[in-house]
């Protein structure tokens, strides 16, 4: 798993020597939330998720999206399950928004001088052409915090989890 350094991709693994062999997930840098008052207003069709079936952190956003019935409101691109020398890879033609072949290209589009790990999930804002959030608990919280506004935007949508018959 590589990283971007000032917008340039580097194939470099985590430095576990400095942590005594322990994995320490670095803090994410895209930490905005959806809000009726902020720049990221909850609107159906405005947001897109980049996720991997191979990432347990990304699963949280997929589960939340399903439970909240947001399949029609938030589209998804699935990256390939392996992280190789270019990090998360997208199949040819899999990214309808940015045409990226590697997730690092999406990060570089959002922040050309980004330095940090390229992780999933990514919540992308189509309107502002940027990453809203790249942390799974906060991505899910984004949809909760904007719930009242989203109800007004799409009155037919039921934001409560569906009950099991």
H/E topology pattern: EEEHEEEHEEEHH
User: How far apart lie the N and C ends?
Assistant: 42 Å
- Content of β-strand: 15-25%
> What overall form do the CA principal axes indicate?
globular
Helix content: 10-25%
Number of strands: 9
| CATH arch. level architecture of the domain at 3-9 and 43-148 | 3-Layer(aba) Sandwich
What order do the strands of the largest sheet run in, or round the barrel if closed? 4-3-8-9
Instruction: Look at the helices and sheets and give the structural class.
Output: alpha+beta
Number of helices: 4
> Biggest sheet, in brief?
4 strands, mixed
The CATH C-level name of the domain at 3-9 and 43-148 is Alpha Beta
Please state the average pLDDT score: 82
Provide the CATH superfamily of the domain at 3-9 and 43-148. Glutaredoxin
Low-confidence stretches: 145-157
CATH topology of the domain at 3-9 and 43-148: Glutaredoxin
| Rg on CA atoms, Å | 16 Å
What distinguishing features does this structure have?
4 helices; 165 residues; single chain; Glutaredoxin
How does this structure look, described?
- The chain is α+β, with helices and mostly antiparallel strands and 165 residues long.
- The protein has a domain at 3-9 and 43-148: Glutaredoxin, CATH 3.40.30.10.
- The chain has helices at 56-67, 103-110, 136-145, 147-153, and strands at residues 3-5, 8-10, 47-51, 74-78, 83-84, 87-88, 116-117, 122-125, 130-133.
- The strands form 3 sheets. The chain has a 4-stranded mixed beta sheet with strand order 4-3-8-9, sandwiched between helices.
- Strand 8 and strand 9 (130-133) form a beta hairpin.
- Helix 1 (56-67) packs parallel to helix 3.
- The longest helix has 12 residues, at 56-67.
